[in-house]
Design goal:
CATH topology of chain B: Four Helix Bundle (Hemerythrin (Met), subunit A)
Strand content of chain B: under 5%
Helix content of chain A: over 70%
Strand content of chain A: under 5%
Number of strands of chain B: 0
Shape of chain A: flat
CATH class of chain B: Mainly Alpha
Order of helices and strands of chain B: HHHHHH
Number of domains of chain A: 2
Radius of gyration of chain A: 18 Å
Largest sheet of chain A: none
Number of helices of chain B: 6
Number of strands of chain A: 0
Number of domains of chain B: 1
Structural class of chain B: mainly alpha
Distance between the termini of chain A: 60 Å
CATH architecture of chain B: Up-down Bundle
CATH superfamily of chain B: Cytochrome c oxidase, subunit III, four-helix bundle
Distance between the termini of chain B: 56 Å
Shape of chain B: elongated
Oligomer: heterodimer
Largest sheet of chain B: none
Chain lengths: 94, 200
Amino acid sequence: MSAQEQGHVVEYPALLKVWGTLLLLTAALVGASRVSPAAAVWAMLVLTPVKAALVLFFFMHLKYEGALLKGMVFTALSVLVVFISLLFLDISFR
Amino acid sequence: MSEEAGRDYQGSKIGMWLFLFTEFMLFGGLFILYAGSRALNPEAFHEASRELSVPLGVANTLILLTSSLFVAAALTAIQKGDRTLSMRLTGLTAACGALFLVNKGVEWGLKFQHGLYPNGPGLAGRPAGEPLFFGLYYIMTGLHGLHVLAGTALLVLMTVLLARGRVRQDDYVLLENSGLYWHLVDVIWIFLLPLFYLAA
């Protein structure tokens, strides 16, 4: 065993593909914002989390991490989603 | 064994992620504040958002996405033992961070010229939601800018540590964790772009 447990190596072409996809999604997001306010909101709700997920899974290597780290990230983000949901419940029903 | 060398690769990474969670919550709280304020002032947020420059916001998005590619590739490079390439890429990432801040400075400068700052003449007499929008804009992009500044400093440090052989093929967790921090800064910006610049 080496001095350090080795992390996963993500090859350059894979990184370039993720980068290209992120640029395309950004272009789609900007394009949708010019179509209509509704399109802008839907694009934001759908494309923005996809972009964040691409960065998390590939650039941040989350895809190659073990269940412990994945579970920790899932738990932290779930807490945030719960808070945001509670906020909108409050605004919708006040 | 990693413990014998006084190192714990997995532990270091988990520690970094725990810190990143606190960052999620810090910005998450601000996103909740934004969402609540916008839900209560939809018209004012729409109008105020028109004042922001979409080209400048998109340019900064391209800079950060590209810098994220650079730092991810820098990690791949050192994992493959190519120290020179890794140093070039961390240097380029830091340069992107500096460029982002210059761009942001120009953008804030233009807003100041138009009196669009808290209690500024440009916001006098406007509906209450518009100063609120700009308040959130300055707090959130400002706090994000501080993170870009910290990340840039961290990447300059990584370039130095790579040069000194402190970060190397068999011990690169410092660079990996710095990369994680940089990607987090990118992820936050991914959310800031549609919330502020594309909301009009």
